Amino acid sequence: LTFLETKPVTFFKQIQPQSSDYGSLVREKKNLEQTLKLGGWGEKITASILRPGDKGEEVVKLRNRLIRMGLMEKSYSPIYDKKLKLSVKKFQMLHGLIEDGVAGEVTLYEINKSIKDRLKLLIASLERRRWLNGAYEDKYLIVNIPEFKLRIIEKGKTIYQSKVVVGQDRPNTRTPEFSNKLQFMVINPSWYVPRSIILEEYLPDIRKNRNAASELFFTDKSGNYIAREDINFDVLIDEDFPYGMKQPPSNDNALGAVKFMLPNIHNIYLHDTPDKNLFSEEVRAFSHGCVRVYQPFELAYELLSANFNNPKVVFDNLLKNEVEFKLNLRKQIPVHITYSTVWSNNGEEVSYRRDIYGRDIEIYKSLQDLGLSL
């Protein structure tokens, strides 16, 4: 319908982004702007840490900020009581922090952020909704980079989710945003070391100590094994270095026990990892760009459910063979690797994450240059 054929309110509702949380983010923006006009969230907390049982002026500041954020009912007490602890845990949940109810350094840093800082991310997120104005498929896999989380969504419901590790915040290692289809998995994979990692990380160490990175071996252009003692590392120039590096399947393989392939120009894929300790970190940006999955076996079972009646038995048996094996998916699943710092899952609560790559602040600055933001 055109503007002249319908009521103005109906027309504008039809052309706004159709993402499920667009309306929630618009309401959040209005609420933040109104709170800003009324003086904001109050004084910032100067303490380095506040715990249940503490009391004093800093606890009052903490309480006041959380009340003005709408995370607890109005009250007055100089004591860090049970209600305040629950409110802190709620804040931590909405911001992807460890939910321990203790206002430590990281939690206080996030609580002390200004409304204007939140609005910048919110405005950028609303702009992203306008770019991606369309519905996803009935079933898809989505990775939200700043959230460090992967989900499989089927008919609007999450049927699988896992923590993930994403790329480090460096020019050549940040995980890109793109969409593709997950086509196959490799069980007990070999790791073919990217050339950039060979030149920047491994060669300098090997030139100092020939036995460094002994779990890797060298190959020629045809993939044939080349003994280290046959290579004169000192005379070879990096730009002309003719060898590749490979790590065979093992318990220590950098890709873990399985990788999930969605062929793309970025050479990005999902995979297991032996470094499980990294999943306990709040900010999980440690990889060279690929997405490391905390619960990869469960992901494999779900993806193979279209191939086999008992995918767990099939996968586990292939895993036990300790032989590299490629397994095509009968039903390829759409994959969307996204970057969302602000969203609403249920139409009410709004979650925020850190702009780890500074991408949303760049969007905000561009809108500001056009006179379309604060």
Written description of the protein model:
The chain is α+β, with helices and mostly antiparallel strands. It is 31% helix and 20% strand. The chain contains 10 helices and 15 strands. The chain has helices at residues 8-15, 22-37, 57-68, 82-94, 105-111, 115-131, 195-208, 296-303, 311-320, 359-369; strands at 139-144, 149-154, 157-167, 178-187, 191-192, 217-219, 225-226, 244-247, 258-261, 270-271, 285-287, 291-293, 325-338, 342-344, 350-352. An 8-stranded mixed barrel has the order 1-2-3-12-10-9-4-13. Strands 5-8-6-7 form a 4-stranded antiparallel β-sheet, with no helix packed on it. It has a two-stranded antiparallel ribbon with strand order 14-15. β1 (139-144) and β2 form a beta hairpin. The radius of gyration is 25 Å and the shape is globular. It starts with 7 loop residues before the first helix and ends in a 5-residue tail after the last helix. The mean pLDDT is 93.
